[in-house]
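Sanity check

After download, print the first record. It should look like this:
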Amino acid sequence: MQMKKPEPYEELEKKWPALARILFGVEIGDFSKFEPYLSEYLDPVVHKKSSISGKDATFASATYCTGARLARFDEMDYSKKYPALGINDMKDIDSLIDAVQERAIYAGSIILGDSKFIEKSSIVNNSHYAYNSAEVESSKYVAYSTCIRDSEMVYGCNTGGNVSYLLRSNGFIRITRCFETWVAANSSDCYYSHHLDGCQDCIFCFNLKGKRHAIGNLELPKDKYLSMKKKLLLEMASGLEKNKKAPSLVDLIPQKPGPAPQALLKQAFKGRQVNAPQQAANPAIIEEAFGATSSILIGKKLQGMGRFGPWLSRHVRASKKKPSAASGVPVMIANYGARYLIPDSRFVTQEESESLGDSLKLNNEEIEKLIDSFKGVQWKETSGVKASGQRKQGKEMAGVSASVNTKQAKEMTAASTSVKSTLDRIAFFHPAMLTGQNLNIIDCTYVLSSSNCSNSISVAFSDKCAYSFIPRYCEHVFGCSRAFHCSFCINCHNCARTIRSFEVDNATNCSDCYFSHNIENCHECMFCFNMKNLQYAIGNSEVGREKYMVAKAALQKWLQARLEKSASVDLDIFNFGCQNGKNR
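Expected structure tokens:
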């Protein structure tokens, strides 16, 4: 007997033909056949068995240690009473950890707010009909996607918000009806394009602002554009229907720019200042903030923040610097939203990208050639991007399967080569941006109206942050991921309105907490898991202020010794559930 499909899956399956018609004008086939393709840009969405019920539990992170006890969010008993700890349990920090470790269970399938019809997903809030997705906020009809907010009809996408009718796109804000569109804002009806702002009806376009009816960065008469668009969309739909996948944007670009594109870049910036003057950096302000925060949390001011960088970065998204293809100036690239899939040799700075769209354009003859070549592009061997966001080694798009005969192989390889060579001279990528009023920003990527931040990714409306990923409306946060309205925190993750806390994961409205997971409205708590409304608690049991403050002072001294000696602490909230004494 055939198993019944989950209700959210059935609804997303019903919406699939409409999405295809909106994007391509025709349907592209059975939704169920596209799962591997739609999952390629998905950050890890991990499915494990609950230790409590044996049911499937979904996690938006792969960082919880192997061997930890896992369960579903809806299986947690927040009113459960735990026995008080004995004197021997609290004689030192190692004994205390051993005593409370059995109470550590990591919660998955976290569904919050007014959310309904959610399956195989986690960290979903006020959303409807989400399947195999993570970090979904105030959205509906989301499949195989990560980090989506305020959106509708999003399939196979990664990172962005305020969008609708998107397929296989990355890094976006306020766009609609787009396919393979990366790093775009305020745009619509775009395909195989990158870094667009305020654009409509663009295909194979890069680094454009306020353009419409463009192919290869060249604006065309509307009638001519629409005729070419129809041909291209039918070809995309035909390939998708036949092979259940398509080349990604980066599959259509050579890994390295050829001599001609490099010469064009130099010509485009000849005699021009390619980078705006940079403000003088003042790392001392951030250093002082780190010292003040550590003094509050561990009772002693830590000095030399850079020395603690590897520890603070342990569970924060990585970033790298690569030289601009135009000037050699370092460009920051963050490992999220599939940015690490972009070839390293094709990055440009924000200032450079702002003029490249007008400087580098295809001509009419090249556009005709591009369209003709695209018809023969090999659709079977696509990017091979793993669900982890890393590219498989070996096969290139031009490679062909053994089932394709030699003549077809040669034709497809020639077509792929032709597309790549045509796009070679216009395809340059700026993977990040600084917008709004920013001050004293050092080695950050994606910054909006923030100040005194360093070594961080996607910072907005925040001050004095370092080694953090997606801090929003935060101050004095270090080593934190996805922190909202938080302050004076170190190594806190997936937290909202949390202050003065250390090594905390999934906390809301909490203060002065240490090594705790999935807590709400908890204050002065340590080693607490899956609890609400506690104060002066250790290991899920309230012990009173006097005992708690003694244990807190001991924990701070324990942390001081390790941080001063090795600038790190082996124990963290992600491995607490399977630690043992010899690893501490």
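If your output differs, re-run the checksum step. Summary of this record's structure: The CA atoms of residues 145 and 246 lie 17 Å apart.
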